[in-house]
């Protein structure tokens, strides 16, 4: 599950790095997203390692992501242990990855919505660092800005690593993933 906001206006913003990660995975495995109105999400699926894998981009906007996640878990009968949420984190430096098997939302409204709607903090997550705003820019404005030309190579690299981390998550231990990707 990648978090972000739908619409061209938000397509390449910092808050949409979860969507960008899902798009990167879909491109690598030649998947196409289809809109599911009932699930309020774009969904792509494929069998990998003998498991059905769903890539999901909620259409509920970031702060209501939990609504879509809850529907998809129920509809596809997915256990919480089989859910990985990928999203931006302004508390991590630009380009840094951090995998955690559980925890609080850390103030992230999308993750807060998921925790609230699922009723647990036992949700695996991959946070992608987008850095903090400079010059006292409000965080709410900063997350809706696009990456600069100087930042784009860093973002391309972190998206490649995030894609590989999601792939490894399907078959590797959490300890190995944390050693390999947490910097």
The CATH topology annotation reads as: Rossmann fold
Total count of domains: 1
Count of beta strands: 6
CATH top level is Alpha Beta
Determine the N-to-C terminus distance: 22 Å
Strand fraction band? 15-25%
Helix-residue proportion: 25-40%
Low-confidence stretches: none
Mean pLDDT: 95
Question: Order of helices and strands, N to C?
Answer: HEEEHEEHEHHH
Q: At CATH's second level, what is the architecture?
A: 3-Layer(aba) Sandwich
Number of helices: 6
Shape: globular
Radius of gyration: 15 Å
- Main sheet, how many strands, which sense, barrel? 3 strands, antiparallel
Q: How does this model look, in words?
A:
This protein has 183 residues and is α+β, with helices and mostly antiparallel strands. It has one domain (8-181): Peptidyl-tRNA hydrolase (Rossmann fold), CATH 3.40.50.1470. The chain is built from 6 helices and 6 strands. The protein has helices at residues 17-28, 65-76, 109-118, 139-142, 152-169, 174-181; strands at residues 34-36, 41-48, 51-58, 84-89, 97-100, 124-129. The protein has a 3-stranded antiparallel β-sheet with strand order 1-2-3. α2 crosses α3 (109-118). The longest helix is centred in the last third of the chain and has 18 residues, at 152-169. The radius of gyration is 15 Å and the shape is globular. The model has no long low-confidence stretch (mean pLDDT 95).
């Amino acid at each position: 599950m990648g978090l972000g906001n739908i619409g061209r206006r938000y397509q390449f913003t910092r808050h949409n790095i979860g969507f960008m990660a899902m798009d990167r995975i879909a491109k690598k495995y030649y998947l196409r997203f289809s809109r599911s109105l009932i699930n309020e999400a774009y969904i792509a699926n494929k069998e990998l390692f003998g498991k059905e894998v769903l890539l999901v981009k909620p259409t509920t906007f970031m702060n209501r992501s939990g609504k879509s996640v809850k529907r998809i878990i129920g509809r596809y009968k997915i256990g919480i242990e089989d859910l990985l949420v990928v999203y931006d984190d302004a508390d991590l430096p630009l380009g840094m990855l951090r995998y955690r098997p559980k925890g609080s939302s850390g103030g992230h409204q999308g993750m807060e919505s998921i925790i609230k709607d699922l009723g647990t903090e036992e949700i695996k997550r991959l946070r992608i660092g987008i850095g903090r705003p400079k010059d006292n820019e409000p965080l709410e404005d900063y997350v809706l800005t696009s990456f600069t030309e100087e930042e784009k190579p860093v973002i391309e690299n972190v998206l490649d690593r995030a894609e590989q981390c999601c792939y490894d998550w399907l078959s590797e231990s959490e300890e190995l993933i944390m050693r390999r990707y947490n910097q």
